[in-house]
Amino acid sequence: MKPTFFAQNNSKSHNQAEKDRVSPNQLSEKSNNQAMQKFYCQKFLETIQLDYTMAGHPSLARWVINSIQVNDGEQDTHFLFVSEGSVTLKSSNGEFLLRENSFATVPGNFSLDGSGQVLVATLLNYTGFFSIGGPIEPLGRLKYIDGCSATVLINPLKLGEPCLNFLYVPPGISQTPHTHPSLRIGLVASGSGTCTVDEGIFEMEEGTVFCLPENKLHSFSAIDDSLRIIIYHPDSEVGPTDDSHTMLNNTFVGEKSAQVLDAIRTK
Asked: Which parts of the sequence are annotated with region: Disordered (predicted)?
């Protein structure tokens, strides 16, 4: 299926939504950049691929139903979340069954096969670390904003590298409108609510998929139900560095941390 860029407000008619649909194959570089600045949101009904390779952190967004074969190259890393059903993951690391609400990081080529729905967010030209985890918990482990909580499902290996996050929005909460300096690719794992952007108010329910462009003003709201959202971040503002990580900082020679002992630190 050819990738498409469009912002679908649930209050629009089907005909109007079709008029808003734009094929990247018909876009100039300028109009392609304009398309990437749109908020993308729709129900997960078919396999979709969006191209964000022109973004600050070149990425691809795929929402996969049942199966996919990815042979784009060994230099990319893929962040997966199974929102429904189960699929078999095959890669150079082996064969694994991924059940509903599980997640994974897969560097290089891979395939999925089964009966399920899967978010696949890809960061180009980045080699990550193969890992599998899950299921997600009911609430986040970390306090966020406006009563919301979050969990880092897949941590950045080093400061600045990508991560996969879980966001919990409690019932009755409307977030303060805010932005992020890099794009966000996401999926509603459960619950219902809305996302407010300058194009309008978009309904969010289980299976809704979305892309937030860089610096897009937005806010999530949960009214009668909560919202549980999986979100790919192509970068990070926290994480270990060569000068500060748990192995280094908690290694002591006498009473001094190896962090301050330049003579023994690996060059």
From this structure: 1-30
CA distances from 79 to 147, 193, 211, 233, 248 (A): 27, 25, 15, 10, 28
User: pLDDT tier at 37 (50, 70, 90 boundaries)?
Assistant: low
Q: Measure the CA–CA gap between 169 and 60, rounded to whole angstroms.
A: 26
Per the CB < 8 A criterion, the answer to whether 228 and 189 are in contact is yes
Q: How is 109-128 classified by DSSP, letter by letter? A: -EEEEEEEEEEEEEETT---
pLDDT of residue 245: 96
In the chain, the domains with their CATH numbers are 14-133 (2.60.120.10), 142-233 (2.60.120.10)
Distance (Å, whole) CA 107 – CA 222: 35
